[in-house]
């Protein structure tokens, strides 16, 4: 099938590339752009290992066509750390809280937390769990993942308060 | 790589309708969270699709001049839940679609896709049935309006002809005004699970809040298609609210339903859920409407 030109902002970089209309976004990110934090887990939108953020919302990139990304802005875990390699708060919290064991689900989890991190209103633990309820982890038992998200939100809140 | 034979890419609704009339066998690809999975699974491998996902004209929610709420079919579940019009006038629908899948699925899944699939477990279906939604269905020949009540034709079958596309879902003002509803879903997991049973109830009370002026009850998975229970509704309309009335309505609902045994649950368990969820949703709806039991 003839490839199609799309324009997409990936991790703040405007990118033009040719994609097959049958290609999933997960395949495009992994194969064409070598962004291998995006994992193929179930490939049917159940496990969340391929989660990326598109225009501020989290999506399973395995069931998202690459052509749908035309004109959109995508974030993957590769776009989080600073250019000097300093981890983002949420990444550091996952390390500090022991929220990572095998690590396969971690990029997807971190992407699902992004829309939640800067929400200013207080969120209950249940509300945080709901936001990551489309991501599966077979190692950690989830507790430390939820802790890491709570700690990151606290840190961001404190940083915000000290700026005021 | 998804195994499409052809992927047609319209730029406008008009182009989409023209493509649908030229290729009536092509599937409408909206959010893809059902079709793409079945393509990958092989069930729909080699199919033709019309990719309407980028058509923003088919997205959004507004109140029309006559007070109807118009939901365009490509509106995602999460956008329905967060929409101020829905929060104000149809919170039961916003809640119902917030019970689907997980956050990622609610960001991509569309309400149009949910009902055009025609499955009985669709979480939006019972609430749209309970609010007497009217569908706007378009083809190159024009537009027809169809009560959602007449849309289901059997499991996975809906009244859409080969050249037609769903372009709007309307809830008339008379249907949501002074009306309070509740959706309850029973599923084994609280996320990423299909309803074992879904029940959507709404009531409009009399001015003194002592009687039910109108009650509407609809179910998912209580039969081969999403369904209303007319016997139970008729029994409740115009009656003074009592705990006995709620029990009687729930008992009457059992006469209208046809649940079956599946690997998810037995028929007997579903009958129990049909009764119990009806009672609970009724009580909550009545309380939301300002009534006491």
Instruction: Report the structural category of chain A.
Output: alpha+beta
Q: Structural class of chain B, please?
A: alpha+beta
CATH structural fold name of the largest domain in chain B: Uridine Diphospho-n-acetylenolpyruvylglucosamine Reductase, domain 3
For the sheet with most strands of chain A, the description reads: 5 strands, mixed
Low-confidence stretches of chain B: none
Q: TL;DR of this structure?
A:
The complex is a heterodimer of chains A (about 160) and B (about 290). Chain A is α+β, with helices and mostly antiparallel strands and about 160 residues long. Chain A has helices at about 25-30, 90-95, 105-115, 125-130, 145-164; strands spanning about 5-10, 15-20, 50-55, 55-60, 75.
Topology:
The complex is a heterodimer of chains A (164) and B (293).
Chain A: E1 4-10, E2 13-19, H1 25-32, E3 51-54, E4 57-60, E5 73-75, H2 89-96, H3 106-117, H4 125-131, H5 143-163
Parallel strand pairs in A: 1-5
Antiparallel strand pairs in A: 1-2, 3-4, 3-5
Helix pairs in contact in A: 2-5, 3-5
Chain B: E1 4-8, H1 13-22, E2 27-29, H2 35-41, E3 47-51, E4 61-63, E5 69-71, H3 77-82, H4 84-89, H5 91-97, H6 103-108, H7 111-116, H8 123-130, E6 134-139, E7 142-147, E8 152-154, E9 157-158, E10 165-171, H9 173-176, E11 180-186, E12 197-205, E13 212-220, E14 227-228, H10 230-236, H11 243-256, H12 267-288
Parallel strand pairs in B: 1-3, 2-3
Antiparallel strand pairs in B: 4-5, 5-10, 6-7, 6-10, 8-9, 11-12, 12-13, 13-14
Helix pairs in contact in B: 5-8, 10-11, 11-12
């Amino acid at each position: 099938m003839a490839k199609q030109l799309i324009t997409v902002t990936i991790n703040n970089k405007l990118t033009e590339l040719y994609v097959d209309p049958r290609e999933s976004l997960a395949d495009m990110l992994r194969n064409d752009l070598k962004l291998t934090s995006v994992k193929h887990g179930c490939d049917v939108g159940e496990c969340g290992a391929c989660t990326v953020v598109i225009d501020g919302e989290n999506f399973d990139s395995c069931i998202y066509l690459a052509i749908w990304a035309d004109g959109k802005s995508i974030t993957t875990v590769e776009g989080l750390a600073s250019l000097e390699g300093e981890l983002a708060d949420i990444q550091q919290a996952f390390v500090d809280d022991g929220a990572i064991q095998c690590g396969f689900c971690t990029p997807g989890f971190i992407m699902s937390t992004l829309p939640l991190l800067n929400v200013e209103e207080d969120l209950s633990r249940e509300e945080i769990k709901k936001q990551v309820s489309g991501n599966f982890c077979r190692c950690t038992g989830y507790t430390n993942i939820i802790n890491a998200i709570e700690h990151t939100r606290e840190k961001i809140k404190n940083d915000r308060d000290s700026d005021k | 790589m998804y195994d499409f034979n052809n992927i047609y890419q319209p730029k406008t609704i008009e182009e989409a309708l023209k493509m649908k009339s030229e290729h009536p066998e092509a599937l409408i690809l909206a959010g893809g969270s059902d079709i793409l999975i079945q393509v990958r699974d092989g069930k729909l491998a080699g199919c033709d699709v019309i990719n309407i996902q980028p058509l923003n004209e088919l997205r959004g929610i507004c109140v029309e001049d006559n007070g109807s709420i118009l939901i365009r079919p490509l509106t995602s579940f999460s956008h329905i839940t967060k929409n101020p019009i829905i929060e104000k006038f149809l919170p039961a629908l916003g809640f119902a679609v917030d019970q689907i899948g997980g956050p990622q699925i609610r960001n991509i899944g569309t309400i149009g896709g949910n009902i055009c699939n025609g499955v009985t477990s669709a979480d939006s279906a019972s609430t749209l049935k309970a609010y007497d939604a009217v569908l706007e269905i378009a083809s190159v020949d024009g537009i027809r309006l169809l009560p959602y009540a007449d849309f289901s034709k059997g499991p996975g079958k809906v009244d859409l002809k080969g050249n037609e596309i769903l372009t709007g879902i309307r809830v008339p003002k008379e249907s949501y005004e002074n009306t309070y509803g509740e959706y309850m879903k029973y599923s084994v997991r609280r996320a990423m699970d299909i309803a074992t049973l879904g029940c959507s109830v709404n009531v409009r009370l009399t001015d003194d809040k002592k009687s039910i002026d109108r009650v509407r009850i609809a179910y998912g998975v209580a039969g081969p298609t999403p369904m209303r229970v007319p016997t139970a509704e008729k029994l409740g309309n115009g009656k003074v609210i009592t705990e006995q009335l709620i029990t009687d309505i729930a008992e009457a609902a059992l006469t209208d339903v046809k649940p079956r045994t599946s690997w998810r649950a037995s028929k007997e368990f579903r009958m129990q859920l049909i009764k119990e969820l009806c009672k609970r949703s009724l009580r909550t709806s009545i309380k939301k409407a300002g009534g006491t039991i």
